[in-house]
Amino acid sequence: MRRKRVVIISISLIFIVIIGIGIMLFVKDNSYKNTVVRIQTINVNSESKEISSYDVLSNGKIQKSHIPHNFGTAEKIKIDRDIFDTYTRKNHLRLLKKIPLYDQKRHKVDDANYWKMINSIIKNVHFDIYKLALFRVGKHYYAYVQVNQWILDAGTLYEFNPKIDNLKKLCDLDGKEIVNISK
């Protein structure tokens, strides 16, 4: 009788442990795939310039967005790549000139956080910049950086936190250019 009770308690404990591990893995797996930001892109190798929507996930991947999302127009600033130069020691970038910044409606933008973001990009990106687009959605700042890698069309999306001057990589994009961002 006592042996039967020990076996039942042991099996119950093993079952509870297995269920607990399963719940932890499920929560960890789902929390790791939360949408951080939504982007609209065009294929740089296509003539059509059809806009596609993607979710950028917290695990650094992107997935095609199947849920309709109302994209507002983020403030977008395209930066002329000629304001940068590289110097050979450790292949770092440097800023050649500070220019006025204009948004997509050609209005002058006087937000110091954009220059903080540009300086952070200079510190963290160690290749010639081919394309640079800065975005602001509310109080959130993003940068799409495409470096000069010969025949590759790879770009990287970063999120910038101006309070702590931190540039965080969100995802890599191959053959896509970001045209709009939504939080």
Span between termini: 62 Å
Spatial order of the strands forming the largest sheet: 4-9-10-11-12
**Overall mean pLDDT:** 81
SSE arrangement, N to C: HEEEEEEEEHEEEEE
Q: What coarse outline follows from CA principal-axis ratios?
A: elongated
Q: In percent terms, what proportion of residues is strand?
A: 35-45%
Q: What does it look like?
A:
The chain has a five-stranded antiparallel sheet with strand order 4-9-10-11-12. The termini are far apart. It has two helices and 13 strands; from the N terminus they run αββββββββαβββββ. The mean pLDDT is 81. The protein is elongated, with a radius of gyration of 23 Å. β9 and β10 (140-147) form a beta hairpin. With 183 residues, the chain is α+β, with helices and mostly antiparallel strands.
Task: Summarize the entry for a quick read.
The chain is of the alpha+beta class and 183 residues long.
Task: Give the topology.
Blueprint: H1 2-31, E1 35-43, E2 51-57, E3 62-64, E4 75-79, E5 84-87, E6 92-95, E7 101-102, E8 108-109, H2 112-124, E9 129-137, E10 140-147, E11 154-161, E12 166-174, E13 176-182
Antiparallel strand pairs: 1-2, 1-13, 2-3, 4-9, 5-6, 7-8, 9-10, 10-11, 11-12
